[in-house]
Amino acid sequence: MNFSLVRKVKEFEKALKRKDCEAVLEHLDDYLEEIEKEDELRELLKKLEDLALECEGELAYELAHEIAHIYAHLDEIEKGIEVYKKIAEKHKGDEEKYSEALYYLADAYEHFGMPDKAIDVYEKLLELERKRGDKKEEALTLAHMAVNCEELGDLDKAIELMEKARTLFEELGDEKTT
Question: Which residues form a coiled coil (predicted)?
Answer without folding.
Answer: 18-58
